[in-house]
Structure formats: structure tokens, C-alpha cells
Amino acid sequence: MKAVLALVVLISFVSRADDTPGDVARLKQLDAYWGEVSRSVGTGDFAAYEATCHPEGVLVSGSKKSSSPLADALKRWKKEFDATKGGEMKASVEFKFSQRLGDATTAHETGMFLYSATGADGKETREYIHFEALLVKRDGRWKIMMEYQKSKGTRAEYEAL
């Protein structure tokens, strides 16, 4: 039993030893990236949101069993950004992560996001979505290459992260 406990402690230590200064810096940059995504959604700043996306990015929808250029999704989403910017609706997005892999120029982020929107009628919708994101860093800026909205989740799953 002591040997098993010692092994668990050793594995925990080795896992934490991977948090190099480079990893810490990368995660800080990615936290800023996701913060900018949240800010742009909340303020309806479409240009800033679009700037977080790679021009050749892909949106994958698990619920629709489809894949399409992220640029097409941006065209669909623009009306909600305009409505938010114009005060006709309120929107927000928050992110939580279960796994964050990467190096200095690539990142694979797994987790959930909560998208909330309140229309002019006062009706609020909250969507909890399991997602994965693949990002690349080019010219000092992170850009999303692939957003995989895997499936709907629950508030309990989101809060557990």
C-alpha cells in the first residue's frame, strides 16, 4: 500500500514538473486570448472576434455532424454581434478547461464554454458546450484554426471543471 501511495505522489510530482516557465507563459498568453474572445462577444466587437480566428479556420459541429469554414460561421454570427453592439441583446461567453496541451506556437485546448444571450424580449438562453480548440501562434498572436463544438453539456459538468 505504501508503495502505491509513493507511486501516486511521484506521478503527481512528475506531472507538475512539466509546468516549465515556457508552459506558464504560453498559458498566460492563451488566457489572454480567451479573455479577448469573451470581451469581444460581450461588447459585440465583431472585428476583434474575427481577428482571433485564422482565415483558414474550421468549425466542426458534433451535434450537426458537420464541418465548415469558420469564415462561414462568422457570417452567420455577425448579426448577433451587431445586435449586442447596438444594445438589442446581451451576450457573454466563459471558458473552462480540462486539458491544455501545446508548445510555443501550437495549442490544443479541451473544455467547455458557457454562452449566454438575453434578447430584447428579456428571454435568456444558456448553452453549455463541450469543445476542443486547435490554435496556432503566428506573428506573436494566437489564432484559432479549429473549433470543435463536440456536444451540449450541463451546468453540473461545467461547474465541475
Polypeptide structure, described:
The chain is an alpha+beta fold. The chain has one domain: Nuclear Transport Factor 2, Chain: A, CATH 3.10.450.50. 42% of the residues lie in helices and 41% in strands. A six-stranded mixed sheet has the order 2-1-6-5-4-3. The N terminus is likely disordered.
Question: In short, what is this structure?
Answer:
By secondary structure, this protein is α+β, with helices and mostly antiparallel strands.
> What string, H for helix and E for strand, traces the elements in order?
HHHEEHEEEEH
Q: How large is the radius of gyration?
A: 18 Å
The residue ranges in which pLDDT falls below 50 over 5 or more consecutive positions are 1-17
| Secondary-structure-derived class | alpha+beta
Q: Per CATH, what is the topology?
A: Nuclear Transport Factor 2, Chain: A
Strand runs, count: 6
CATH domain class name: Alpha Beta
Q: What is the CA–CA distance across the termini?
A: 30 Å
Structural domain count: 1
How many helical elements?
5
Widest sheet: strand ordering = 2-1-6-5-4-3
The share of residues in extended strands comes to 35-45%
Largest sheet features: 6 strands, mixed
Please, what is the average pLDDT?
90
The coarse overall form would be globular
The CATH architecture = Roll
Helix content: 40-55%
List keywords for this structure.
Nuclear Transport Factor 2, Chain: A, 6 strands, 161 residues, alpha+beta, 5 helices, globular, disordered N terminus, six-stranded mixed β-sheet
Question: What order do the helices and strands come in, and which of them pair?
Answer:
Elements: H1 2-17, H2 21-43, H3 46-51, E1 53-61, E2 66-69, H4 70-85, E3 90-102, E4 106-118, E5 124-138, E6 141-152, H5 155-160
Parallel strand pairs: 1-6
Antiparallel strand pairs: 1-2, 3-4, 4-5, 5-6
